[in-house]
Each structure stands twice: as C-alpha cells, then as structure tokens.
Amino acid sequence: MHTTLGDQKASTIAVEDGAIIVRIAMPETAQGADVDQAALLQFAARSDSFQGFILWQRYVAVYRVWEGKVAAAVDAASEVGVDSFSRVYDPLCQTAASYAVLTGSRQFTAERFVDRAISMVERVPELGTLMRDGVVTPGWFHAALAQTEGVLDEDVLAVIDHEAAARLREMGALSASRVVMTVNGVVAEYDVDAALAAREAAKVGKKVVTAPVDAELSELSVTAAAEDVELASKSLDAVVDGVCEDDPRSKQVRRSDAAIARLRGVPFTCRCGEDDCPARLSEEEIAGRASKIVLHVIARRESLEGDSETPAFLDGFGPISAEHAREVAQRGDTTARTLDVGELMNGTAQAADGYRPTAACDTAVRALHGECSVIGCVEAAWNCDLDHVQEYDHADPAAGGPTCPCNLVPRCRFHHGLKTHVRGWVDDLIVDATGVVWTEITTPEGITVRARALNSWLVPELGLLPCSHPGRVVDVDAVDVDAVDVGSGPVRSLTRTRAKHRYRMRIRAANRRARAGVPMPMPNAEFADWGEPPF
Q: How confident is the prediction along the chain (535 residues), in pLDDT tens digits per residue?
C-alpha cells in the first residue's frame, strides 16, 4: 500500500515488509526573503495528512482484535449455549478494556474507539478510505461517520457510503462544513426513512438547558428546529442593531443582553450613557427591522410537490430533507417564489445598472455556492457580498467582467476586503465541459486551491446555461500588475500586540480585585469586551 500526502508530491506513506514508512518532504526553513513561502505553507498545512493513514491502520488493527474475540465468543456459545453478546463483558467491552489499559484511557473512550473502528470497516469503508488517503482528516471523517449513524438498512448504507465518498473525491478542496453538508445531503437523499426518523427524534430532543460557565456566568442553550434557530438569531441582530455607535459592548455581549431581556420581558437599552442617545430600540422600530428578515430555503419544485426526495438547502445551516422542506413551505410565514433559470437567458444584469445582477441571477449564484466561496469560510451566502471575479469596469462595462453567474461568487466582507486590499490574492471561476462550476483561490505565495461549487448537486442546470454576454480576450502581456492600486485597506484600532497587552492587563486587574474581595466594576467604553480580542 502506498499513498501520497495531499499536495506534497514528495511526501509519501508506504507499508513495506510489515512496517509503516513515513516520508515527509521538509522545506528549507531558514529565515530570509528568499525562503520558499509556498513550500513552507504546504508543509504546515498538509503534513498532518499522515495522521489519517495511521488512524486507519489503528482502526483496522483493533477491528481484527475485536473480530478474533467475536469468533471466540461464537465458539464458546456453540459449546456451552451461552450468549456472550448479551453480557456486560461482550467482545467489544473486552477489546476496549485491553485497549484502555494500554492507552491509559477511560473505558468509555476506549469503547468509542473500538465502535468507530467497527463502523469504519463494516459500515462506511469507502469513507474510511478517504481518511486513509488523506482526502479527509480524522476529524472530518468522524463528523461524516456521525451523519450515517441513523441509517439501518445495510444496502442503503452501502449506496450512501459509495455516493458520499465519490462526491467528496470530486469536490476538490474540502473543509469540515463541506464534508458534513455533503454526507448529510446524500443521507437525506437516499434514506428518507432515516431522515424522517432523525427529524422525529430531534423534535423530542427540543430542550432548554442551563450550565455554569464560571463564578459569574451561566450558559443558556436552546435546542429547536434549524429554521427557527436561524430566525431567532437574525431576530436578535434586529434588536441589537438599534443601539447607537457609542454603546461600549461587543456585538456578542449585546446579543446576550438582548436575548435575556426579551426572555424576561424587560426593555433592551443602549449603554452609551448619553442623555441624547439616538438609539432606535422602540418596539415599533425593532418590529420594522425584524419584518425585513428573510430565511432562504432552496428546493427543487419536484421536491416540494412530493415527486422527488432530493434534499433542499437551508441558508446558514445546510441540506435538509425534502420532507423538512415541505413542512417549511407550509408554514404560515413562508412565501414561495419560483426561480426560473431560463430567465437568465434573457439577461443577468439590471437594465439600468449593469453592475448589479437581476433578482434571478442574484438568487441563482447564492443558491449554487451556498456559502462564502473561499474554502474554510462558512459565512452563509445571503450574508455575503456578490463579487465579480473578473473585475467590473465601471468606466467601460463592455471591457470589464460581466455580471453573470459565470463571473459572480458570494464572498463574505472579510474575504472580499482581503482580495481588494491585499496584493497577490487571485480568484477565478471555471465552468468545465460538463457544466460543473469550480472556484479557485490563489494565495500571495502562489498556492492555488480549487473546489467545486457547494450546491452543484442541487442546481446542476446553472453550469449548462449558455451565457448571453460576449466573451472577452485579455492581453495578459498588456496588464501592468504593479500599476494596480489595491488601496491601504481598513485599519485596526489597536495593533495585535497592543490588543494582547490590554487584554492581559484587564485579566490581571480582575484577578487582583477578586483576590482582594473588591467587586468587579462594570466595563466602560475602553474595556468593553472582556473576551479574547480578535488578534
């Protein structure tokens, strides 16, 4: 057995003569301007790929031990008529007990390890192979494994394992959220009964739980339907958006205060302390902002009409079953709108402003990508900007990038600003010959990461539509890269070093007051956010 680690072609793992041989290419780490930053980043980001291979081998090894104990238990049962599998000390328990002693772990932890090993070998071997080959990390594999727990039919599970593994291999660059959403979508599509059972079990699992955090704080956790949680979260933002700009609290602190105030039935107020505070926190003003909240669910018509079980996509959450989508569609506060992709043939930009997409184009792009198009970012598509991949030329629109699904991607405000203000970040969007839409990001170090649009499975038609705008040929030699002014970009109120120093000074002061028995003062504008600052 032999495998190559991710993008490091010189790094390999091989099993030879009963031994695992790991060879990881080590880049030059000497300081200086000439150091190969691309090689260093590749090493830092991808050299952990061997962990999946080692874990796969560990799982297979402990599975063989368990398998041997099962065979022994079967033989014993046939001889003395005792069912060893109904006993507390069954083969799994015995295997885990030995493993726990050798690893110094608790019995529960060891049993979970053995159970995962059994599941990998017997239930989802193809997903396990992805971990072995470094396509997914151990953490991503365990998250994918959890999505298949409710599938009981072995034949259906085999189909899900094969289809999910195939999709993940074809998606290009992956992240934790993309792995979970992909596997979850396949399960919802191929095992309707499991999806329904999971939904019914989830309804029973609705709860409100409190737990202490420290000497001062407790946590309130509310478990509810995905769409209701998303709406509640957006509703909190509608409340806190009414404070004035001088409110000293961070946004998360304001959201916490607003949630408790709403639950207690008391007013949520601004903390600026000014007599002429311009805050907009009346019930009428909050209701006005809340009325503009929209939660988007993208579903195929045949799924809503009950003719198909193709899952839908809930913005900010991920795939949901067709049955779940039908329930959402029947809510009294739901408005259904039809997206006719054929409309894109008539034009994708607004007639009065070629920079802005039509409503159909806007919806299609966000539905296709599902979240920020930068791998690893999970910002929901409808919270993102729509960015022209090939820059739009406002002075000469015919010479700039078109406003079209072939040139638009959702990008969160941070990554949009990164592309705009930091030299060297390059993105691209490619529609291949089969109509699959791909995005590419090239870092300033010259490393290119390519990934399939997240929801290609849901709206495959978008990559097959011919564009109505004329193509444009760019004379690369005529482009003066050094002449491009990317601007200075946004400025931090504090440097990272000063932010760290200020944070540590606050913690030390708080600890000293606590030891002296002095009550903790209310945070003022200078020391508003008691949490770790965004270094």
A: 555 555 556 677 778 877 888 777 778 777 766 778 888 888 888 777 788 999 999 999 999 999 999 988 887 766 655 566 677 788 999 999 999 999 999 999 999 999 999 999 999 999 999 999 989 999 999 999 998 988 889 999 999 999 999 999 999 999 999 999 999 999 999 988 776 766 666 666 788 999 888 878 899 999 888 899 999 999 999 999 999 988 988 889 999 999 999 999 999 999 998 889 999 999 999 999 999 999 999 999 999 999 999 999 999 999 999 999 999 999 999 999 998 888 888 889 998 898 999 999 999 999 999 999 999 999 999 999 999 998 888 888 877 789 999 999 999 999 999 988 888 888 999 999 899 999 999 999 889 999 999 999 999 999 998 887 766 555 555 555 554 555 666 777 777 777 766 666 666 666 677 677 765 554 444 444 444 444 4
Residue with tokens 């110094």: 104
Q: What is the CA radius of gyration of the chain?
A: 27
Indicate the DSSP class of residue 269. -
- Residue 82 three-state SS: coil
What is the rounded CA–CA span in Å between residue 334 and residue 57? 50
Neighbouring C-alpha atoms within 13 Å toward the C-beta of 65? 17
The single residue listed with the structure tokens 């949901």 is 320
Task: Give, in order, the Cα–Cα distances in Å from 62 to each of 18, 57, 122, 142.
Answer: 16, 9, 13, 17
User: Under a CB-based contact definition with an 8 Å cutoff, are residues 459 and 298 in contact?
Assistant: yes
Q: CA-CA distance, 7 to 36, in Å (whole number)?
A: 15
pTM, two decimal places:
0.80
Between CA 82 and CA 73 the distance in angstroms is 9
Q: Do the beta carbons of residue 84 and residue 73 sit within 8 Å?
A: yes
Answer positive or negative: Cα dihedral of 241, 242, 246, 249: negative
User: By the 8 A CB rule, do 422 and 486 touch?
Assistant: yes
Residue 298 CA: distances (Å) to CA of 181, 318, 494, 506: 14, 10, 41, 46
Are 333 and 341 spatial neighbours (Cβ–Cβ below 8 Å)? no
- Between CA 507 and CA 510 the distance in angstroms is 5
Q: Helix 322-329 crosses helix 192-204 at what angle (to 10 degrees)?
A: 60
The sheet that has 8-16: what strands, in order across it? 2-5, 8-16, 19-23
DSSP-derived pairing of the beta strands 8-16 and 2-5: antiparallel
